[in-house]
Amino acid sequence: MRNVHGFLDNDVTLAFIRYGTIIVVKMMLMSTITAFFRMKKKAFVNPEDTASFGKGENAKKYLRTDPDVERVRRIHLNDLENIIPFLFAGFFYSFSGVSLSTALLHYRIFLGSRIFHTIAYLVPLPQPARGLAWMAGYLVTFSMMYKIIMIAFTMS
Amino acid sequence: MRNVHGFLDNDVTLAFIRYGTIIVVKMMLMSTITAFFRMKKKAFVNPEDTASFGKGENAKKYLRTDPDVERVRRIHLNDLENIIPFLFAGFFYSFSGVSLSTALLHYRIFLGSRIFHTIAYLVPLPQPARGLAWMAGYLVTFSMMYKIIMIAFTMS
Amino acid sequence: MRNVHGFLDNDVTLAFIRYGTIIVVKMMLMSTITAFFRMKKKAFVNPEDTASFGKGENAKKYLRTDPDVERVRRIHLNDLENIIPFLFAGFFYSFSGVSLSTALLHYRIFLGSRIFHTIAYLVPLPQPARGLAWMAGYLVTFSMMYKIIMIAFTMS
User: Fold this and answer.
1) Residue B77 belongs to domain spanning
2) What ipTM did this prediction achieve?
3) Is the entire prediction scored with pTM above 0.90?
């Protein structure tokens, strides 16, 4: 990278960019999975999306909610709710003077927790599989937030 | 913090990190409040979440929407819609050459507006309490955006 | 801007700030459009929002979902799902050593795709107008992600 800001002199920030990118790509894939399930289950929400299935009642019957589609949409929303705080926390955490190994531990647990959360939600696995996956990522984000607060609020 | 980027030489960016962290923690707490209301009101959305309440019809009756749960979820979504623009604007605003006191005014009004918005939504307080709280944060974000536009679009 | 980080020495980052600001302002306007449609169609979700329309049954009839309101809300959620990855990718992409002209191509296609997506969703235009608009922005974000991955994962 053009090293204008020295983002890459900081190996922890480099690690954040690597893990953050994978996590955001994973979140983006939820859009594709939603589209796939909408096609497969023929369950749409906009009248213009069903026009190719014919007219009138023929098309209208595909304007419906489907449990599998809604499930994928919930995963996507849960990703937004959890990954956005991670991106904020993970970025500033990488400047907090934390060691690379500690930071990697945080980033890796978070990545693992979101991947496992998605699998547990999609299958679905019996609880508390999904709950524990979510909790792991949630606590890791709080741990990074705590470090940022400890540093940022003790500086003059 | 490891001062690789001089983020902390800039007292306005330091202020942004402080207020941004508090605001993101507040947003994250909505997940816990949602979980709390789902437990309290026994209102779940995934069949696997109700398995511990028994089988068949016994568990099925807990698959329902509850007004209080939906209320908390709306707060969370409203947070996402408003706090994400704030994080974007607040970060770049802190490099716009604005004075610390002006920036603090913006950050503090936004933090106050979101906390009051959450209280007004949860209680709920009569309107226009919630509407005004939302408006305050919205206008503060636009004010920061305006400053960024004025600076970024006049540079060569 | 106070050039503490040299953000503005980097003309690609300056371009990101310009386009990112316009895109975030566009996303924020969805809140106002939602409010406008709620007023126009008298379709609200919170009992306290309908209090000014009278009491009891008189007010209750305005607690309803309206297709136009829901349409605007879907645009807003789709914006969140797509613009957040863009902000993450676009920021780090601007440090990837990419040329200004290539970066501008990415930022401009994304901005155009989101504006056209909103118009296609609001009108609504027949499919695949909205689908192609969404796809353009989605692929551009992946293209930036790919570049970030190629750079960040090949550094020692």
Assistant:
1) 1-155
2) 0.90
3) yes
